[in-house]
Amino acid sequence: MLDIKSVREDPAAIAKALERKRHSFPVDDFLALDARRKNADVRSQSLLAERKAASKKIGELVSSGLSVDEAKAEVATILERIAHDIDEATAAARQAQEALETLLLETPNVPDEAVPDGDSEDDNIEVLRWGVPREFDFTPKDHADIGESLGQLDAAMAGKITGSRFTVMQGQTARLHRALIQFMLNEHTGHHGYTEVYVPYMVNRESLLGTGNLPKFEDDLFKIGGEQGYYLIPTAEVPVTNFARDRIFEDGELGADGLRYVAHTPCFRSEAGSYGRDTRGLIRQHQFEKVELVQFVRPSQSEAALESLTGHAEHILKRLELPYRKVVLCGGDLGFSSKLTYDLEVWLPGQQAYREISSCSNFGAYQARRMQARWRNPGTGKPEPLHTLNGSGLAVGRTLVAILENYQQEDGSVAIPAALQAFMGGEARISAGR
After folding, report:
1. Where exactly are the structural domains of the chain?
2. Does residue 283 sit in helix, strand or coil?
3. Which of 40, 248, 282, 393 could covalently link to 92 via disulfide, CB atoms 3.0 to 4.6 Å apart?
4. Alpha-carbon span 315 to 72, nearest angstrom
């Protein structure tokens, strides 16, 4: 959530900045609601003063000739009217405040000055390219064809069990998927200082409000029926970031570099608005796995933290020897809650294209304000919003896709990257029927 004080100081500047995200901020609506809230507060304070003065009028009325009972009755009538007016003013202030909060909950984060202008992913700017795509002496297949040829990816079976955008994995491919998870967790905990956590796969509405998934993206979520109103998580970002909700961290709790968490979870997304896109294979599924990185840092550290977090995701791609590129997202492609995002895109020979495999974002104080996640600044002694960051380290299914396509062999088998062979019982190749 944006800082309402900053919005009040210059709503036109906020609106101008949000135009870069192709969001139209309703300045007039905001000003009208804020004026309503302020007027109702002023009215309420005035009535409270009037009530205090009225309670002292009995003596004055008796002095003017009224009996004590008559004076009490007149004051009671005045106080009753004031109480009614106070209730109305308080209700008006509350309604205006709630409307303001709703408006701000539906307002995206302001992009960082480093975010390039642009309308879509076509306007993202490449800032780094690593590795050289392999030259094949045969026509490379895409991962869906490879998996079907191996007899180890079965969309038809998943369709019978559940429906479209699900896949059954079998044999060595299923084992490779599991190996990737173990490998990523080991790398992030062993080399980058992340604490591994296990979290619920369902969350409540407040958790999704805190990270910015609600109210705007409700159609992208799977809601569980029943009185609880739980939602299946779209990513581990939601439960892990909510570790900080309604907390004040003492400075010493954050350590030198902030707090770092890594979690492996399934992720569930309805893929609303993606009809017809990536209908084959593992690129765009309703259920998939990710190893997610989340950091809580002091505001002064968040720019450097984004660079290091992105580097941690890149480390996995380098260890797997997968060619990739790094792009900075333009304003029109930037996520709702993010102020600055790097996407890592891995090379897929079957598509002859780079495709997103990780998105690493700095949210600044935006999520922290929504969650009341704060740290105590030792310089002032006062609580201030934390800065939150997260990124995939990596999306497991898409990493499996990249391995199948980049390591495919002419005979239909798939070589196993050296970094994963220990997790595969020393095996160096995936073959049909195994």
Report:
1. 26-105, 121-430
2. coil
3. 40
4. 80
At 284, phi and psi to the nearest 5?
-135, 90
- In this structure, the number of other CB atoms found within 10 A of the CB of residue 244 comes to 23
Contact 375, 383 (CB under 8 A): yes
**285 dihedral zone (left: phi>0; alpha: psi -120 to 50; beta):** beta
The residue type found at 21 is K
CA distances from 414 to 172, 397, 427 (A): 10, 16, 11
- Write the Ramachandran bin of 425: left for phi over 0, alpha for psi from -120 to 50, otherwise beta: left
Q: Which amino acid is at 52?
A: K
Counted residue by residue, the chain has a size of 434
Rg (CA), the chain: 28
Strands (E), 87-143: 125-130
Q: Cβ–Cβ contacts within 10 Å for residue 186, how many?
A: 12
Side chain identity at 59, as an amino acid letter?
A: G
Long-range contacts, 17-25 (Cβ 8 Å, 24+): 17/110, 17/111, 18/107, 18/108, 18/110, 20/111, 20/115, 20/117, 20/331, 20/332, 21/108, 21/111, 21/331, 21/332, 21/334, 22/119, 22/331, 22/332, 23/107, 23/108, 25/107
Question: What backbone torsions phi and psi does residue 388 show, to the nearest 5 degrees?
Answer: -115, 150
Q: pLDDT per position in the chain (434 positions), as tens?
A: 999 999 999 999 999 999 999 999 999 999 999 999 999 889 888 888 888 887 777 667 767 778 777 777 877 888 888 888 888 888 988 999 999 999 999 999 999 999 999 999 999 999 999 999 999 999 999 999 999 999 999 999 999 999 999 999 999 999 999 999 999 999 999 999 999 999 999 999 999 999 999 999 999 999 997 778 899 999 999 999 999 999 999 999 999 999 999 999 999 999 866 666 777 889 999 999 999 999 999 999 999 999 999 999 999 999 999 999 999 999 999 999 999 999 999 999 999 999 999 999 999 999 999 999 999 999 999 999 999 999 999 999 999 999 999 999 999 999 999 999 999 999 999 998 76
- Find all residues with CB under 8 Å of 372, minimum gap 6, and list them: 245, 246, 247
Task: For domain 121-430, give the CATH number.
Answer: 3.30.930.10
d(CA 261, CA 265): 13
Token representation of residue 200: 């619920």
pTM of the full structure:
0.92
Residue 176 CB burial class (10 angstroms; 0-12, 13-18, ≥19): buried
Compute CA 229 distance to the chain's CA centroid, rounded to the nearest angstrom.
20
